Amino acid sequence: MKREDILAVYAAGPDAVVALVEQLLAAHQTQVAELTARIERLEARLNQDSHNSHKPPSSDGPAKLPPRRSRRKRSGKKSGGQVGHPGATLMQVKQPDTVVTHRASTCSQCQTALTNAPVVGHERRQVVDLPTTRPQVTEHQALRVCCPHCQTVTAGEFPPDVTQSAQYGPGVKALAVYLQTYQHLPFERTQEYFRDVHQLSLSEGTLATAQVVCAERLAAVEQAIRTGVIQAEVAHFDETGLRVEQKTHWLHVAGTALLTFYALQPKRGGPAMDAIGILPAFRGIAVHDALSGYFPYACGHSLCNAHLLRDLTAVSELTRQHWPARLTALLLKIKTAVERARTKGQPHLPRRQLKAFTAQYDQLVKSGLRANPPPKPTGRVGRPAQGPIRSLLLRLKTRAAAVLAFMHDFRVPFDNNRAEQDVRMVKIKQKVSGCFRSLAGAQIFCRIRGYLSTMRKQDHNALAVLTSVFTGQPTMPRLTT
Question: 312 in a domain, yes or no?
Fold first, then answer.
């Protein structure tokens, strides 16, 4: 206000002055409340790390974090190998490849020559080492044969996969793809490996072509994996950002205990999931992290309780209210009860126990809602924002069946760690490379990596199955348990 306006109010009398002061105080209180809420939100964001949010541990940084209480209970065992574990001690083999004898030349007592003395025994020691590797070149010759009857010269045929005057075989190509896709080596370090270890100078183009050929031959296998996930009783779903061509795309993963399927999409939600085509046809139980895009699909839903426990930890640290810690303890208690029942061979928890757990859950959620009432109307159009704490409580209330799905169905796990483990390997690749330089290259990587993840889940040798791809007969995974 200008000085003239203030003097005009003063001239209007005491009532006008009181009205102005009340108006200014109300505006000030509103502004203070808004700024306080904003500061609280910013402080809460700064205090987030992997123990109280959905951030991965790698994002915590090198700074010293506050001491935390692990949810794992002490086993009472000493660190290191336990009694009865198989161990990995290097053992002697019965038939060594090479035997080198060491004969004494003179007697250790009287120095007599032992050149012709009989051998009366020996002690064995073995050294396991790697041989010096060099390329093994196989030459194919198509012989021309002259017919003795008509004198026509007929040439023999080369194998279908021998198309060039000089080319690399399945073993070299499989190893190149293995190093880049499974061990996450970039192009330059892969080339260095082949030069140093195998005396081969592979060009970047050769490495890229091997990736393309491998992905093309795995197209049918990928579709089989996709079908296997659709037909599964329980499947895990997750998504994460992936940098491709300097833009953020979204990596979607769908997997089971046996299968891993990756898909790369420009979006994260429903349109991307529709384009992938798994969730629209899936009728089992989908385990996920409560992204709203999952719920419209006509399948069962189970929420990741590991995410939920971190959310509850954040609320407890922020508000010091009691219900988050009690709900955390209840969920862990239910998890323990389910594990014990499963160990005993029970198909489900007793009805009485289920009813008691459900009642405790509902009571704690109600307690949280009472402690965090709805926000007051702001006078603006639309419903006021509920805030992160009340939004969490409303999700706990409306999605209670999905939160407690693991309690009612023993096929359903407590968390979504399986999908997060599948996602982690692709994130490691991004950390190594920075980003994918092309969308086609990212899609090729996802197809090959999905196949390798699937085969490793089924205890196959990753290099062996890649070799089978380049020999023209890819090893097929099991699609059901």
Answer: yes
